[in-house]
């Protein structure tokens, strides 16, 4: 069964599961898991090399999979640093797509809304396709959309926390209002969390930690793929509503009662 | 100190090299080359004094005394 | 990107089928869902929803009170001119109608403002025909500074203007603009707009885009119910509103429900809307969009107004005159349409208060003006 393809900045994605390359035990396991997930977009990071002569093991297996690469700006603590990393990433990978993330807070890695908006404005001006990781703040998401971001990536919960959709109410408002795709990022710890996000109306989810640190990352990647597809199918095909509790009715105006009885 | 050499920094570490050294030459000297003849693999980016230098210009860009060169690479990350 | 381009992707027949084919099960599911989709709205305005009307009324009233409290905003239309350079089959102001034409000058405008101030109104809606040359931006530039002191909340229902013109008027104190598409059915639109700039459907349809871009606080929309199939037109309007809400999210939106009425040289509606259907439509809008402002004019008779306003309406006019100069000096031969609720303001106010509503004489405008 097929879900509708997702379009971001003119590129079409059949899979609505985005993945990350971090925290895997080995590059081989990473490649196998991403292949099993069916993901067509995966994130990676840019760092200053240690000059120890070690190869970056990561790129070759990813190129082999044919997956689109989405460099992130993790490590940046200001808009200026993030723009710098984005430009480096564009050179290193030959893509103008960037996952913008700025977290000056080393403890919970919370995205800085002010620096993120500033960086988004600048990077859009420089021709980047910007996908900002941000708090689940509906107003911020509208501002990022207005700045020209190709999608928004609000968090479900703190990065790596596996807590699920702790921001559910705000995510609902974001999805209702957004004019660009909404990708729920961070905090999705179980396939059921991913399915829940998709049922709510998320356009995609990004999962990294929950796959990478699973007992069997390859099988877990498949489990997430199934959950994302199930959630999306349910969303696209008219999910039944949970009945609201009965509400005591107040008497209707006599005029309206007569109107109800009229044959016309 | 030989008059033919200059001092600069790579990823904050002091380095010495011959005057006229290009960025491409520096990257090979840092052991980043792979294959025969050695080439710099994809996934590497270089900044000269915080300005990103496109790969096509590495061979044409000379390193000057006091320059700060930063070499970056793609790594795994979420 | 503007709505006109999106509208071109919408298929009238398909939307019509969506409403016609709605089932009772879909209506029940729509009623149960906390946030309604456009598909839910299609079901709620369908024939299949008629047995559910009592539930819809209860739910609409609950949502309205939850969002708006007991408040109902009072406004008054101020007709500046009946000059018009359009010929529209349904309108008494049409240029081919042999009626007396009038455009208020400065003194007459001030006299109207004084008369309106005595009635207690501070939310004013300026209304004109569509006459670019005599009743266009130059005329508004002259009149707005005179009117603004009497209208702390000032709205307009005039011909579509350009973005920079709207922005200029916002700078002079304009708070809201009502612009009704009349119909989204292209053949009907062409059939009823026979001469004049209003024939340009795209220019009219993109007016709310221009209002949003100009930073207008309140954007008023509507279709002329009965001109084409009112259910499909309403579903089209719901698509339009959804687009606008996403794109120009800083603005507020209001909806009006003009039903096609007899007027001088007028036509009969092809898709008449009964009073019960009007109640269904108003309730369906409230269920779709709990934050939407809904307006009901004096076109409707008192019994219906008094019963429907408490369910879902947030803005009403009373004691309206639809002729230029009508507050200072009433003269029926100039009017745009006959009103049905001819009660004076205080009688309407009394009736609404008896139903537990509070009257708001001045709307909340932008905080900094």
From TrEMBL, chain A:
What gene does the UniProt entry assign to this protein? Answer: thiG
Which Gene3D superfamilies does this entry report, sorted A to Z?
Answer: Aldolase class I
Q: What is this enzyme's catalytic activity, as reactions?
A: [ThiS sulfur-carrier protein]-C-terminal-Gly-aminoethanethioate + 2-iminoacetate + 1-deoxy-D-xylulose 5-phosphate = [ThiS sulfur-carrier protein]-C-terminal Gly-Gly + 2-[(2R,5Z)-2-carboxy-4-methylthiazol-5(2H)-ylidene]ethyl phosphate + 2 H2O + H(+)
- Claim: Cytoplasm is one of the keywords in the record: yes
Q: Note the InterPro entries from the entry.
A: Aldolase_TIM, Thiazole_synthase_ThiG, ThiG
What's this protein's name?
Answer: Thiazole synthase
The family annotation for this protein states:
Belongs to the ThiG family.
Annotated 1-deoxy-D-xylulose 5-phosphate binding lies at: 160, 186-187, 208-209
Q: Which residues form the active site?
A: 99 (schiff-base intermediate with dxp)
According to its UniProt entry, this protein's organism is Pseudaeromonas paramecii
TrEMBL record, chain B:
Tell me which positions the record assigns to the signal sequence: none
Q: Which Gene3D superfamilies match?
A: 3.10.20.30
Which InterPro entries does the entry mention?
Answer: Beta-grasp_dom_sf, Mopterin_synth/thiamin_S_b, Thi_S, ThiS/MoaD-like
Task: Give the source's domain of life in one word.
Answer: Bacteria
Transmembrane segments annotated in the record for this chain: none
Pfam families, per database record? ThiS
Q: What is this protein called?
A: Sulfur carrier protein ThiS
Query: Which species is this record about?
Result: Pseudaeromonas paramecii
Q: What is the lineage of its organism?
A: Bacteria, Pseudomonadati, Pseudomonadota, Gammaproteobacteria, Aeromonadales
From TrEMBL, chain C:
Determine if Ribonucleoprotein is one of this entry's keywords. no
What PROSITE patterns does the record point to?
RADICAL_SAM (PS51918)
Question: Where does the Radical SAM core domain lie?
Answer: 68-305
- Do you know which SUPFAM superfamilies this protein is assigned to? Radical SAM enzymes
The cofactor(s) it depends on are: [4Fe-4S] cluster
Cite the entry's keywords alphabetically. 4Fe-4S, Iron, Iron-sulfur, Metal-binding, S-adenosyl-L-methionine
Q: Does the keyword 4Fe-4S apply?
A: yes
Q: What is this protein called?
A: 2-iminoacetate synthase ThiH
Please name the gene that encodes this protein.
thiH
């Amino acid at each position: 069964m097929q879900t509708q393809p997702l379009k971001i900045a003119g590129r079409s994605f059949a899979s609505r599961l985005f993945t990350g390359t971090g925290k895997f035990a080995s590059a081989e396991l990473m490649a196998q898991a991403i292949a099993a997930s069916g993901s067509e977009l995966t994130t990676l990071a840019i760092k200053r090399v240690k000059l120890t002569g070690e190869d970056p093991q990561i790129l070759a297996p990813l190129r082999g999979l044919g997956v689109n690469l989405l460099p992130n700006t993790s490590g940046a603590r200001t808009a200026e640093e993030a723009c710098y990393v984005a430009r480096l990433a564009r050179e290193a990978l030959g893509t103008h797509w960037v996952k913008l993330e700025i977290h000056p807070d080393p403890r919970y890695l919370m995205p800085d809304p002010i620096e993120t908006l500033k960086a988004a404005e600048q990077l859009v001006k420089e021709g980047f396709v910007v996908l900002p990781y941000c708090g689940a703040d509906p107003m911020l998401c509208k501002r990022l959309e207005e700045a020209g971001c190709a999608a928004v990536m609000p968090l479900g919960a703190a990065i790596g926390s596996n807590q699920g959709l702790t921001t559910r109410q705000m995510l609902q408002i974001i999805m209702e209002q957004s004019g660009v795709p909404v990708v729920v990022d961070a905090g999705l710890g179980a396939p059921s969390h991913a399915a829940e996000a998709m049922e709510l109306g998320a356009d995609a989810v990004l999962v990294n930690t929950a796959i990478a640190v699973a007992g069997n990352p390859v099988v877990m990647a498949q489990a997430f793929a199934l959950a994302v597809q199930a959630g999306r199918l349910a969303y696209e095909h008219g999910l039944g509503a949970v009945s609201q509790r009965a509400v005591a009715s107040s008497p209707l105006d006599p005029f309206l009662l007569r109107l109800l009885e009229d044959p016309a | 100190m030989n008059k033919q050499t200059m001092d600069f920094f790579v990823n904050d570490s002091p380095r010495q090299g011959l005057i006229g050294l290009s960025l491409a030459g520096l990257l090979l000297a840092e052991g980043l080359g792979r294959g025969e003849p050695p080439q710099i693999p994809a996934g590497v980016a270089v900044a000269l004094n915080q300005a990103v230098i496109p790969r096509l210009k590495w061979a044409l860009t000379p390193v000057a005394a006091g320059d700060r060169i930063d070499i970056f690479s793609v790594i795994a990350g979420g | 990107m503007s709505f006109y381009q999106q509208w071109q992707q919408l298929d009238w027949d398909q939307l019509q089928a969506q409403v016609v084919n709605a089932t009772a099960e879909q209506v029940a599911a729509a009623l149960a869902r906390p946030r309604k989709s456009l598909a839910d709205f299609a079901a709620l305005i369908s024939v299949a929803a008629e047995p559910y009307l009592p539930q819809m009324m209860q739910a609409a009233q609950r949502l309205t009170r939850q969002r708006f409290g007991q408040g109902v905003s009072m406004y008054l239309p101020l007709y500046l001119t009946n000059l018009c350079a359009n010929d529209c089959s349904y309108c008494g102001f049409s240029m081919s109608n042999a009626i007396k034409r009038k455009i208020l000058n400065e003194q007459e405008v001030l006299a109207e403002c004084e008369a309106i101030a005595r009635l207690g109104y501070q939310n004013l809606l300026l209304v004109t025909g569509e006459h670019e040359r005599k009743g266009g931006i130059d005329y508004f530039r002259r009149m707005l500074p005179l009117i603004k002191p009497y209208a702390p909340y000032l709205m307009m229902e005039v011909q579509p203007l350009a973005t920079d013109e709207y922005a200029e008027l916002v700078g002079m104190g304009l708070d809201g603009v009502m612009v009704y598409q009349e119909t989204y059915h292209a053949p009907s639109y062409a059939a009823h707009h026979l001469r004049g700039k209003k024939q340009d459907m795209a220019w009219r349809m993109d007016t709310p885009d221009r209002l949003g871009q100009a930073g207008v606080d309140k954007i008023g929309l509507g279709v002329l119910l009965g001109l084409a199939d009112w259910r499909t037109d309403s579903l089209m309007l719901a698509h339009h509103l959804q687009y606008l809400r996403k794109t120009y999210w800083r603005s507020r939106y209001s909806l009006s429900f003009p039903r096609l009425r007899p007027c001088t040289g007028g036509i009969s509606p092809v898709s008449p809307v009964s009073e019960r259907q009007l109640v269904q439509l108003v309730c369906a809008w409230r269920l779709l969009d709990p934050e939407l402002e809904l307006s009901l004019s004096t076109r409707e008779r008192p019994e219906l107004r008094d019963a429907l306003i408490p369910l879902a309406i947030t803005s009403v006019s009373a004691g309206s005159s639809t002729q230029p100069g009508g507050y200072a000096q009433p003269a029926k031969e100039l009017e745009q349409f006959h009103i049905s609720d001819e009660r004076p303001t205080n009688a309407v106010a009394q009736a609404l208060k008896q139903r537990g509503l509070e009257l708001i004489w001045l709307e909340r405008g932008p905080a900094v003006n």
